[in-house]
Amino acid sequence: MTEEATPPRRPRGARVDVAVDRGVFMISVAAQLAEMHPQTLRMYEARGLIEPSRSPKGTRLYSHDDVARLRRIQQMTVELGLNLAGVERVLALEAELDVVHRQLAELEARAERAKLEMAAELERVRRSLRADLVPYTGTTDIVRRVDVRAPFRKRER
Prior knowledge:
Blueprint: H1 27-34, H2 38-47, E1 53-54, E2 60-61, H3 64-79, H4 84-130, E3 133-135, E4 142-144
Antiparallel strand pairs: 1-2, 3-4
């Protein structure tokens, strides 16, 4: 009797992790999760407020992110009293704000890298000049070594 390699079975009730942006819910389930009518989801899709993925046969598949967006739309319409045009504008502004935040984070990172590079270059320049500069006892100014007369050197006439 030979044992064939079979994939391990998951125990019943085992949890499967699914990416939050992967469409897994059919319209009826998504509507229940978002606490709204399936026709409302179709209307939101027609208005461009939500874009569910499609199965190979064309069935709408809603992700966890889609359901969260549907809940957000419902909050804006019910609790805040916005109409769908207002919701569209708010979502567009939030998307723009996300882009600006990403750009700002990128600029801050570039500025930090430039600051570190500048500090390193400044330190390199200081080290290279340290050998050529000496403090002059007459003042607190720093002068070049060649301009300082040695105290024991006789002046030639």
